[in-house]
Protein: FMN reductase
Amino acid sequence: MLIPRILVFAGSVRTGAFSGKTADVAQRELALAGAEVTRISLGDYPLPLMDEDLEREKGIPHPALQLGRQILAHDGLLIASPEYNASIPPLLKNALDWVSRIRRDGNRDVRPFSDKAVALCSSSDSAFAGMRGLYHLRAVLMAVGAEVITPQCSIAHASKAFDENGALVDERSSRQMETTCRVLIERAIQLSKRVEP
Structure:
């Protein structure tokens, strides 16, 4: 039985970000469900603004290649995103845009997002729970070849949504997260191109 490798990251690197807390919950839930989980921070992959002139002059920035390799090494992704003005935060959008430009890595033809199972979560202190931003994020990921699963977890009133241990206090949100993680694992196994020894 394949043990799926799932990469988890938040769309914000702000200290105390709700998306970071949401990613923490997802990381724990995925591990409980049997996945091998890797947690990263986009802050460890500093990138200039996406610019085709810069790409033509200097190539794909090394941090984008590193992030692309992380994605390629995993069977699925879970992205926990905040919502900025009803859309995708610029840090996350910029990272996705750069990684989507990768076509080769050494001698290999690669498309990091191609047929990759992806789950989306959002969090916001508003009643909208960051869901508006996920519509845009889902469209971007589908455009670069990812397979975004239907279930998602959106956490409203996020300043009150986590207990002192970082767990979700609302049962409905907990069920959403559990379902999202379970379906991600199932689809990641189905789409995995890894061959277990």
User: Anything to note?
Assistant: The mean pLDDT is 95.
